[in-house]
Write a structure and sequence with these properties.
There is one protein chain. With about 400 residues, the protein is of the alpha/beta class. It is about 45% helix and about 10% strand.
């Protein structure tokens, strides 16, 4: 997939050269001003770039359908604008993006509005695909909380800058869901079985760890972001190398501290390389009984708090993702998401959101309640081919990847 994306970018760069001449420096300078349309996504127009600001700070910039629709329209128009060399995205407040607005999805389901859920996932996944095949350099400033589909709308881009405030996680199994928006693609490509560990436990990574495992391309202290932003705002270029140098200018060379989970990669591989969730749990339990390992005990607690069915669906999704392209992962995740939210197999998504975000009693009643009762037949229901009456994700592969 990396080779495919590299080829697409090379070909698109040749096309852009025809409309982005050396006279670009003579383009009129747009003063930094924010267009406020709906207020949830603001736009900063600069000399030769555009910046999208996710602007729902009270909701940690969680994504809803209007936000993703606006982002998709903006990015499509920016890609077609020869005066724009590169694009940026960042979040307001203490978060980049905490993921999907699952509370809104919960209420839509409770009201019987399954079409609303379908439209959200359809728009979201198409935007993720647009990011992955974008013809211009893209910079995501992952300052603050970056979780769930918040990672999905940023990690496919060319540059991902993490900071000392970054908190990355995929906690979906804790609400009876699965890591989506391309997560089965990029989590499955992390070192060893780190992706399985993060997906099944919901454990967090900081900015340094994101760089170390390849999720982020650059790192900077939060305090230096204003200086970096000022430099980027003055750039007149579409050259990735120039943007790369500019990001690195205010960056830092850092290494995970001694307590980082990345130093346990051998243990992660030992336990999370098993074929089934039951085998993973059994291996952890055996280690606890033999050595009373504190990390293994904490890991078991996290897994036992999650939906048993979601754990099994998630593990299979990531394992399949290892051998699939991003568009294939998105198509499969789209199907899992629709079947998971509609409750045709289990109502764990609704129960998980209720327990953790609505009533906040943190006592979900999972159905089925145990790994043993989450049968292979139930898991298979999420992966069966779509029936004629079911919607499928239609991505513009022929037009976005014409040379591959």
């Amino acid at each position: 997939m990396q080779q495919r994306q590299g080829l697409r970018f090379l070909l698109s760069a040749l096309r852009r050269r025809r409309c982005f001449s050396s006279s670009s420096s003579a383009l009129p300078h747009h003063s930094d001003h924010l267009s406020q349309d709906d207020g949830q996504v603001l736009v900063n127009g600069r000399s030769n770039s555009r910046m999208a600001l996710l602007n729902r700070p009270s909701s940690l910039n969680s994504l809803n359908t209007p936000m993703v629709s606006r982002l998709k329209r903006l990015y499509e128009s920016w890609e077609d604008n020869s005066n724009i060399g590169f694009v940026l995205m960042k979040g307001s407040g203490n978060a980049f993006c905490s993921g999907a607005d699952v509370v809104s999805l919960y209420h839509s389901i409770e009201e019987g509005n399954t079409e609303g859920c379908r439209d959200f996932f359809d728009t979201l996944y198409k935007f993720v695909y647009l990011q992955a095949t974008y013809l211009k350099p893209h910079v995501a400033i992952l300052d603050g909380i970056t979780m769930g589909s918040g990672a999905g709308i940023s990690l496919p881009g060319m540059f991902r800058l993490a900071t000392d405030k970054t908190v990355f996680a995929h906690p979906e199994v804790q609400i009876g869901f699965h890591p989506d928006a391309g997560a089965s693609f990029y989590l499955s490509r992390l070192p060893g079985y780190l992706g399985e560990y993060l997906a099944l436990t919901g454990d967090k990574l900081n900015g340094v760890e994101m760089v170390a495992c390849g999720l982020a391309t650059h790192y900077s202290l939060n305090a230096r972001l204003p200086l970096m932003d000022e430099r980027l705002s003055k750039l007149i270029t579409d050259e990735p190398s120039v943007i790369d140098t500019s990001l690195a200018q205010y960056g830092d060379v850092v290494f995970p501290d001694s307590g980082s989970i990345l130093h346990r990669i051998n243990a992660i591989d030992k336990f999370f390389g098993h074929d089934t969730v039951e085998e993973i749990v059994h291996a952890l339990e055996t280690e606890v009984s033999e050595s009373h390992d504190n990390w293994c005990m904490k890991t078991l607690v996290k897994i036992r708090e999650a939906s048993p069915l979601s754990l099994k669906v998630t593990l299979r999704s990531i394992r399949e993702g290892r051998f699939q392209s991003l568009d294939q992962c998105l198509g499969r995740e789209f199907q899992i998401s629709l079947r998971g939210t509609c409750g045709s197999v289990s109502k764990d998504f609704r129960e998980g959101v209720r327990a953790r975000l609505i009533d906040k009693d943190f006592a979900p009643k999972w159905d089925p309640p145990s790994l043993a009762e989450a049968t292979e037949e139930m898991v298979e229901q999420y992966f069966l081919p779509a029936e004629e009456t079911e919607p499928v994700l239609e991505l513009p592969i022929a037009s976005r990847e014409p040379f591959v």
